[in-house]
Amino acid sequence: MKYSLPRGTRDVLPDETKNWQFIEKTAKKLFSLYNYIEIRTPIFEQSEIFEKSIGASTDIVEKEMYTFKDKSDRLLTLRPEGTAPIVRAYIQNALYKTYSPTKLYYCGPMFRYERPQAGRYRQFYQIGIENIGNAHPFSDAEVISLGMKIFEKLGLTNLTVSINSVGCSVCRPVIEERIKQFIGANLKKFCPNCIRRFDENPLRILDCKNKKCITYLSGLPDIRGSLCHECADHFSSVLESLDSLGIKFIINPTLVRGLDYYTKTAFEIISDRLGAQNAICGGGRYDVLVEQMGGPPTAAVGFAFGMERVVMVLKELKMFKEQESNLVFMAPLGTDQQIKCLQLADSLRLAGIKCDMSYSKTDLKSQLKIANKLNAGYTVIYGEEEAQKNVVLIKNMKVRTQEEVPFKKVKEYFINENLL
Ligand code: AMP
Fold first, then answer.
1. Torsion of CA 60, 61, 65, 68, to 10 degrees
2. Which of 308, 311, 312 to mutate to test the pocket of ligand 1 (most atoms within 8 A of CB)?
3. What pLDDT shows up at residue 98?
């Protein structure tokens, strides 16, 4: 019997993990420069946490959650996103008492039962930040700028920031009324989901992916005309600060994102290199979520980007460079020499030099074959003759040169070659 992985999931094979590590390392370096600290929360949470925060009439809650009962009949859900669990942890551990504002980052798999396609999976990996306790519009700009910096650092080009304001509890009813008025008699032409959401949650109609619905929405008056003073001022200030940071953006009046907790700013970072799933990063402000989940009134803003999509774009741009190999391969020629090489490998690793050897082969030809297969940078050849002279032969596998080095100086040799 042959097993294969579940639909919508993928193996990240050794060839690709180095790209993932490179992206993660770059992001973490920048997070630290902006004073973010890592948080790790469980992969599953009480279902209610997601239902209440993401919103009952969103696609995620309506049809995409992996929800199950555990053996004690607890209703649990594999996390479809990172913000709600972090807000739960923030409140439960009273993080506001220790750090304010609380600048957190996270990395990990998320789960949504979506229709799989290029760039859309059922298990996908997100890297994100939450800046909790910061109401100032400059923090929105800083969050967006941090996202852009990561992508710039990775070598991503042709990105666009698409931005909108979805208002707050004061102006949201006005926005919703405007949407309803605009749709008016055309409602019956919309998809059944939109028809249902017309009364339940009209803002969600703007997030519908159905082509017909999108067409009927064209010409919708700019949401900004319905914003209250505070939201309008906040939005202008975000746009000004983006300008001052040299970040180009386009205002997209129908951008509301697929989660209900957003207030004021909502944004996406779009790549022209991806097809239908062109958003590599999404985020926004969520000023009421902490209070809604039982914490003190706390403004917050954050984003998450999808690892798989960033990898796709970087691959297409051929941004992943083949790294020079720094692997040292030990090639003892004979069993007597094996033990000496085993000790040498040990001491090289202790000094921080990457080292490997084969125990089953002791002839030169087979060992060089293995060294090539492993893409070793160097092979240390140690035969009877070398043992008698107390030396090794170091073969540079790239330029194919060979030199004799005293056995005692091997470590020093590789340190000088900058293999650390
Ligand atoms: P969201 O959590 O929906 O705001 O999405 C933030 C980012 O996560 C998106 O811009 C994508 O890069 C990524 N993402 C969301 N859903 C998926 C998915 N099903 N498969 C792959 N990446 C995803």
1. 180
2. 308
3. 86
